[in-house]
Batch of 3 targets.
Target 1
Amino acid sequence: MMTEREFDVLLMGRSSIDLYANDIGAPFPEIKNFAAYVGGCPTNISVGTRRLGLRSVLMTAVGEDPVGDFVLHFLEQEGVVTDFIPRKSGRRTSAVILGIEPPDKFPLVYYRDNCADIELTIGDVLAAPIARSRILLISGTGLSREPSRSATIFAAERARDSGTKVVLDLDFRPDQWHDARGFGVTIRSVLRLTDVVLGTADEVKAGALREDVSVTVEHSQVSGAYVSGDVLQAVEAILKAGPEALALKRGGEGTTVYLKSGETIEAATFPVDVYNVLGAGDAFASGFLYGYLKGWDWHRSARMGNACGAIVVTRHGCANFMPYEQEALTFIEERGGF
């Protein structure tokens, strides 16, 4: 188990108000009403890890607006530490609008122009409790623009200097990058500071993205980009750059953990009826980090992640529907255990 510190996990990056369609199955133009939740990759994981009993701190930024009030109110109710979330004057808390058309269409639209969280600065990082946290989680979208890009890399440097583990959630959102190839260039620049990488096959391929690789998006779902290339070559390239492990999220096919040593660990999924896949990856990360911080082996940690992901895909949203610790453990036990 890792060294005891004041906080278990410090999460850095985007936050938003998420408006989820209540009209399940309706094409996007025919949606009549939405439910308001809280979202954003690191924000979802902050809630997911907190519900699992970890001491979670979120470093994002919100605007001086009612939407920022909405986000902070929810996080405070959940027990996530919000002391390091600045409010950025002249910037807006971001928003995402999402449709739900099972089994395979979950269109979403980002509203991140002039958003607050991309304005996180090196000064904000200096105020954050990196050395007092066991893990720092950073995400790909936080690297997409300045000043957040430099702040995120600086945070990873400070974590490395203080013995804090760095976990990188690739979080590839093509519309947040001027050129998708820039995602690969930027990701590769931070891998030397990273201990563990989390991502889907397409995100992993994007992390190794070079000029001969293409990116396409279907169903207007910018979280569902299809990236060409060989995933195993991409995994090898990422691990060669520094991380000790890469957890490849394969949805209904389970999770594969690739280690720098060359070992590969397969963790089976838990079959469920899918209601909404959005948020599954963040739920996985929450469960995986829980196991990692408990000192569990890679297989057991990935199974915990798979369980949390399986629970969330049966529900309407992300952060608001993350499972609690006993709920996830009972879910696993009832399905044959780890």
Target 2
Amino acid sequence: MKKLLRWLFRKPMIWLAEKLSSSANEKDVFVSLTKLKDDIGEGKTSKGITLSFDLATARYIIFSDQHKGAKDPADDFRLAEENYMTALQYYDQQGFTLISLGDSEELWENTPKTVIDKNRLSLLEEAKFLQQDRYFRVFGNHDLEWSYAIQQNLFLKPIFGDKLKIYEGILLNTKYNSKDYSIFLTHGHQGDKRSDGNAFSKWVVAAIWTPLQRFLDISINTTADSFDLVDKHNVIMYEWSATQRNLVFISGHTHKPVFASLDHIDRLTKQLENATLSGDAELIQTIKDALEKRKLEYAGKQFVKTMAHPSYFNSGCCCFSDGDITGIEIADGLIRLIKWDVTNEGYKRIVLEESPLTYIFDQL
């Protein structure tokens, strides 16, 4: 009976997820992102922090959208948890600074106490970075409660300690060819009417959608299934970034990885075209296999976008339904889109795309 109900309800639940996931308005997004960037740049520490970094020596790993939950069928993180822990251990050993870019915990569906109790091990792995002053955390719409000191003190600081600070955004500043350049990081929900402080959407997710997920044992990666809305929101954030001078913008929120303003599917498609022209049969098959694995990401695409200005990146998420996670690395003078892949031999770090930061800056 449950299998029948699962079959009957899956499409309506995906439809509900699409309706709840995003309603980005270009004007609102532009105004919100500009104000946040300017506030941080002007030194308003209540909004964020400004950090200087060296192009040659900086080492950052940026993950977002873990959505750590209650370890039940509605918890999108549970299938990726071991992969995420493996990645954290690798980056700790390699001396990276960890930036968690929002929606680290799923607080629309669960109480803070439940999430902390169920995810203590992965939180302790994150806390290791803070103990070495290599950790920064940004709040998103699904963990907005962490922006309040009372919630931080009650639930997070017993694990992370008093060093913990949580921001809405971060500005990483550097110099190149005697010019100032910035990398602006925030979750990306700003200006999204269904995410930016919308109490009704939160109630529907908690009261209707999540109980159905748990009862039917359906785990849906909400925004990853919402193809058109996700693309629309990424396009708007890209268009905002293209109006900024000497700035690279990195966000999360949409769950869809973007590198230099091209999403993962666009890049794979271009790689397949080049491989076909070269006649490399092995490479052609490898790319086709990758496209097939991500078929849920591209099957619903209804338009192809061109984003020539390489100003926008998206870290993707750490809760894909196959257990994979994606993130953005800044290291060795490069910016990389990486995936930690679930294989028969374990968890494997794969560089999906990379570019020298100096090349990106030259194009801005």
Target 3
Amino acid sequence: MYTIDNEIQIRLTAIKWLEEQKAIFGKTLPRKLLENGFIFNGERITLIGARGIWKPKQMVLPISITTSPNSPYNDDLEGPCVLYKYRGTDPNHSDNKGLREIMKRNLPLIYFIGTSPGNYYVESPVFIRGENRELLSFRVVGQEFKDKSEEEILQVSEREIEQKYSFSTIKKRLHQPVFSERVMYAYNYQCTMCRLKHRELLEAAHIIPDSEGGEPIVPNGLSLCKIHHAAYDKKIIGISPDYTIKVREDILRETDGPMLKHGIQELDNHKIILPYHKKDWPDPERLEERFQAFKLV
């Protein structure tokens, strides 16, 4: 078993290794890769396991925390913090004591957020900055809040978050990639309009945009290739509440190359491809709201 000093080096090595893996695999990493981990001083360090609060056998304190795609703990956001639920209800469970010790020593953690079965978005490093005993939770913050006390973090207003930290806050970093992966998984990693299945060319589109209060949930999302995402955002293409694709009248009258003809115009009056699970289908009310804006162009 390593000492605390050695564990700091393991943590830094793990964070660097994860960045290298993201450069290879993209923003989300497969669970098997994280379970295998990496070699440190001739020993394999695993980064994720059966417990949400994970401590490899060689270490004294946890190295990572995990929220699964269907987590029973309902980890949630609280201003600039993520509330990460205790293991169980006993504040003195060994896993909870481990995170409390992490907090006291100001040690970095890795946060794995399940986006779809077997895939995780990685946020690292994160830090424990206080507890909410009533909600049986630890407050988890990103790098930009590392040197702030719990009291200072709780005093940060939503306006200050928007102005000072912009898109670098953990709150914004977590929402978009998790939303994106869950939407594309629901649509079996294909464009809902043209069936393109090249994942590197797919994006998750909001039906009601973030800027208009759109929620980062699957029924407010569409899996679209980059071309059709841009066309949907620019109101060249609309989708009616009965899931029918409509192409703008002036675009239908245009004459151009094969991309316009086969990639845009021929979609008119076709149905979109729906997710397998009905609970993931686009919300008709949201589609109607967006479709009305499309018809005004």
